[in-house]
Automatic annotation (TrEMBL), chains A, B:
Annotated InterPro entries: ATP-grasp, ATP-grasp_carboxylate-amine, ATP_grasp_subdomain_1, PreATP-grasp_dom_sf, PurK, PurK_C, PurT/PurK_preATP-grasp, Rudment_hybrid_motif
Encoding gene (name): purK
Lineage: Bacteria, Pseudomonadati, Pseudomonadota, Alphaproteobacteria, Rhodobacterales
Name of the protein this chain belongs to: N5-carboxyaminoimidazole ribonucleotide synthase
UniProt GO molecular function: 5-(carboxyamino)imidazole ribonucleotide synthase activity; ATP binding; metal ion binding; phosphoribosylaminoimidazole carboxylase activity
Domain of life assignment: Bacteria
Keywords: ATP-binding, Ligase, Nucleotide-binding, Purine biosynthesis
Assigned EC number: 6.3.4.18
């Protein structure tokens, strides 16, 4: 599909969490209707025209879904290959498989980034305990052993402080293919939300500075602490990644800031938690930008018109709702999840202040 | 209901047009789900959890609807009394009947405003041709004969340039109760979007300056051309109206600016087209403000952080979509209506520029 999907068309979204929900709302603003595919609980269904509740193994449901929409996108990268096979035969899927297969596998991703000449954490493929011990010899400790696939929010990761811990750590992978990553000595972490459309047009939002706790993003702040040349580097490398993947849509690129270079931590082929600040800091936010990119509309201008601190509301952060509702500069975005659970992202708040000069 | 409806609750919305649609999206941002009641085509259904398609005469459908939601609001004021009777017995309806009965009838509305000491256009009740002729004697021409009920966007109105036209004009009312309104010699028209909640808290957005063509709003601009004291007068009188009606929710108050005073044109007990600029000019927009008011949450701060010109996209204005999508400062809001028709509101665009000093 190199054509434009005109407003009025229907967009299918794989995944019905908060990202799917905010994509659906943005699509509606542009006059599209949406259909969510989600096996489990589905906050997105409340703001979408339709919802197919079926598993990713249900090929007949997948076919029916694909035939009822003009275009398919997704809110998460761990979509089973068999499901994608079933979908792409019936309907364009954007972003495409290249971005998915690259980002679904930490080893493939690191090799792809290295090929582009970009800095990453030192890494080694680990298929056996012998591999792991050899990797520790080369990379040193501390290091992190990570499953190559299906990790998110710190899951599927074991920290190795000392090589005596190698065997226990390897056992925790339970036979899953893994990589060992060395630590990067970074001062802080930033991310760039980059958009690219089928015409090759690229647009980045200002980098955000991210703070994690317990492996989960807590806050994203714009402007980030970056020199002018670091900011430009960040944007250029994000654009290079998107172009090399022939990417269509919005992508998150996480970067470690080190004295020498920006080191790519990981890429996410989807709208990204660290881009939620754009909802209140830009005329066109990351969700609308993604919809514009996949439908072939011109990308929006990513200019920021305010400073923003985005704070995730996780688990019992929801108890603070009464106070948050009283804050004059706080824009609330709740996800409509029925149950509060520890570690669960329930919403976020964007605190908006007038644009400051670049620091 | 003086209690707060906590996020997670379900809000019923009478009417499924663009106002219902944008209310539903705002409710979702605060974690509420929505259920639309709409007999006809329903742009709002695409962003709501549920939709009852039934007429306002279907008491059983109304009952079912009311029993499935925690709270009911509406996007239009011409709700039949019998439908309201059926609803209020099962569920709180906000704003309440006082505001509806006042604004549904131009005569009652004008009398209410006069009682508050507010200036209105000169008016007379017209029940017969003799009444009309007497009214013309008192008010003069030109004047406008308007049905007391069910008028909107210039419908149900006849302009009388000369008393010789009285008989033809009266015949056009087809026996409907009417009023004759004299012309007001105004320089421009502004409106205030005022919110009030059950605790009596009141908050106004900055007045917008409105331009109509063919009886339909074309643009709303903030800041409006108003002196500081006029701006304060506008806000004070809007607050006075809301308080006198014991109003709960967001209300639009249209004002004519004359050298002597602000003359109230009409009030609309709902979110208002002239408040759409708040979506991109304020941290909390009129739709969220309405949801906050009716659910008992604290009102948001209505402060404006940008200048905005809102332009309605009417009928074949939609042909300009390609150019609008290329404008960097243009935030598009399309309503997802299936069919473009002359005079039909298809969407709007908010053009955002940095905050200017008050003019």
């Amino acid at each position: 599909m190199n054509d434009v999907l005109a407003p009025g068309g229907r967009i299918g979204i794989l995944g019905g969490g908060q990202l799917g929900r905010m994509l659906a709302s943005a699509a509606a603003r542009l006059g599209y209707s949406t259909h969510i595919y989600e096996p489990g609980a589905c906050p997105a269904a409340d703001v979408a025209a339709d919802w197919t509740q079926a598993s990713y193994e249900d090929l007949s449901a997948l076919h029916g879904f694909a035939e009822g929409v003009d275009l398919i996108t997704f809110e998460f990268e761990n979509i089973p290959s068999s499901a994608l096979d079933a979908l792409v035969s019936a309907c364009p899927v954007r972003p495409g498989r290249r971005a998915l297969s690259t980002s679904q596998d930490r080893l493939v991703e690191k090799e792809f980034l290295s090929t582009l000449g970009l800095a990453t954490a030192p890494y080694r493929n680990v298929e056996s305990l012998a591999d792991l011990n050899a990797a520790i010899d080369q990379i040193g400790t501390p290091a992190i052993l990570k499953t190559r696939r299906f990790g998110y929010d710190g899951k599927g990761q074991v920290r190795i402080a000392d090589r005596a811990e190698a065997e226990v750590a390897f056992a925790q992978m339970a036979g899953a293919p893994a990589i060992l990553e060395g630590f990067v000595n970074f001062s802080h972490e930033v991310s760039v939300i980059v958009a690219r459309n089928a015409s090759g047009q690229v647009s980045c939002f200002d980098p955000a500075e991210n703070l994690h706790r317990d492996g989960i993003l807590r806050t994203s702040t714009v402007p980030a602490r970056l020199s002018n040349s670091q900011q430009q580097d960040a944007i250029l490398l994000a654009g290079r990644i998107a172009t090399a993947l022939d990417y269509i849509g919005v992508m998150g690129v996480e970067l470690f800031v080190t004295p020498g270079a920006l080191v790519v931590n990981e890429i996410a082929p989807r709208v990204h938690n660290s881009g939620h600040w754009t909802q209140n800091g830009c005329t066109i936010d990351q969700f609308e930008q993604h919809i514009r990119a996949i439908t072939g509309l011109p990308l929006g201008d990513g200019r920021r018109h305010a400073d923003v601190v985005m704070e995730n509301l996780i688990g019992d952060d929801m108890d603070r709702l009464p106070a948050l509702l009283e804050e004059p500069a706080a824009a609330l975005h709740l996800y409509g999840k029925a149950e509060v659970r520890a570690g669960r992202k329930m919403g976020h708040v964007n605190r908006v202040t007038p644009l400051s000069p670049r620091s």
